[in-house]
Each structure stands twice: as C-alpha cells, then as structure tokens.
Amino acid sequence: MAEARMEAEAVMFGLFNPTPSLASMIINHYRMREDVKSFNLGGMGCSAGLIAIDLAKDMLQANPSSYAVVLSTENITLNWYFGNDRSMLLSNCIFRMGGAAALLSNKRSDTGRAKYRLLHTVRTHKGATDECFNCGGHRGAATMFEHFCVHAGCRAELEEVQRSLSLQDTDMEPSKCALHRFGNTSSSSLWYELAYAEDKGRVQRGHHVWQIGFGSGFKCNSAVWRALRDVPALSSSSTGAAAP
C-alpha cells in the first residue's frame, strides 16, 4: 500500500456525500500525489461498488502500470428516520454502517501476488422507464460460476434472485450470512460476501465469482472475477457467521 499511496488513481464513492468529498478526505489523510485522479460517486445507491469497479477498469486500461483504489462505504446518519411512523422504521432496522476497499493493478509485477483477475463487467440502467422492471438473469448460472455475491439488500430480494437464477442454498450462503450478521451495508456488502467465501476456504484457483449489485434508479451491475490462486481459510474468521 505504501507504493499505491503514491501512484493510485483513487475511486471513492458513497451515499454519504460531504464537501470536501470523501475522496478528498482519503487523499488528504494518505498524502497522495497531486496528480492523483479522484472520483466521488455519490447517490448511486447499493450498486455503486460495481460502478466504481467498472470505472477503475476503464481508467487502468487508459493508464498503464498504475493502481486504482476502490473504497465502498455506507453511512446512514443523514437518512436516519426520527419519527414515530412504524412503516418508516424499516430502513433504520436493516441498514448498517459498513465499508470495504479493493486495490486494483495493471502492473505485470503484481501478477504473482494478485488474488483475482477481473474478466468482465456489465452495467444495466432502467432509468429511462417510469416503472423500472427487475433485471433478469440467465438460468443455469450455477453451472458457470462457483461463487455468487449478491447484494444483501433484504431477505426477500435474495430469495427472489435465488429463485430467478435457480441457485442453491449454498450459493446464497455468503449473501444471507452477510445480511444476517452485518445488515444491509449497501455497496460494500459484495466484499463482505467475498470475504466470507475466502474465510471458509472455499475459493480455489480457477474459480469464477459473480458479483451482482442493485441500486436506485433502477440499476443492476455485474462483475466477473477469476481466482488466480487458492485462498486459505482463516483460523479466526472476522466475517464468518453461522448460516441463519
């Protein structure tokens, strides 16, 4: 990270949208270079994480031998409901503070220590229609991927995705356990789920990971990764949780 602090193109985002931006706060804290390219993606909802990954991918393609840091966070302070209407209290119960970061590189020297290779990203936005329909998936996905990280928005959402994609309970375990233990941490939930699979020692070289994020607007975004090496299980898991 010491080298990345000097060379990284910072991609920051979140529902929390202060001024100076969260990106500026990070750059100031880590004393990054003056020519660092920073982006603060606010108001993108729970799908912002994969939007940032897609943006980082484009930036790395245009800038060889570079780093990109993607920081995903949720801050519910400004959206907390202080009233007494019970129907409005759901968001207070399900949303939680959370955050995760990923370091991306296109340097050949990092090939040996990288965990994953980003293979593909897909962004779908239904904002042109007054009524946004659910983004459908392809049945048979369970035969194409070993791991699924579906945004842990709520139980009903996860169950509908499982039904639509004909996934097994084991496929949905990382998402359901992340929701059970941490609540809805917005766009950072995808990284909690991947960490869960890693902590359990389930990620092996050659495995494919499908991350699926949903956000307001309505947006549905996907990223596909291939594991470049086995990820050993942790003896003391920080993200593991018994399946609810």
The shape, in one word, is: globular
Number of strands: 8
Q: Taking all residues together, what is the mean pLDDT?
A: 83
The low-confidence parts are 133-138
What count of structural domains? 2
CATH class call of the largest domain: Alpha Beta
Largest sheet: 4 strands, mixed
CATH architecture of the largest domain: 3-Layer(aba) Sandwich
* Helix residue percentage: 25-40%
Radius of gyration: 18 Å
Write down the CATH topology of the largest domain.
Answer: Peroxisomal Thiolase, Chain A, domain 1
Count, helices: 7
Summarize the structure.
Helix content is 29%, strand content 24%. By secondary structure, it is α/β, with parallel strands linked by helices.
Task: Describe this entry's structure for a reader.
This protein has 244 residues and is of the alpha/beta class. The chain is 29% helix and 24% strand. It contains 7 helices and 8 strands, in the order H-E-H-E-H-E-H-E-E-E-H-H-H-E-E. The protein has a 4-stranded mixed sheet, sandwiched between helices. A 4-stranded mixed sheet has the order 5-8-7-6. The two termini are 36 Å apart.
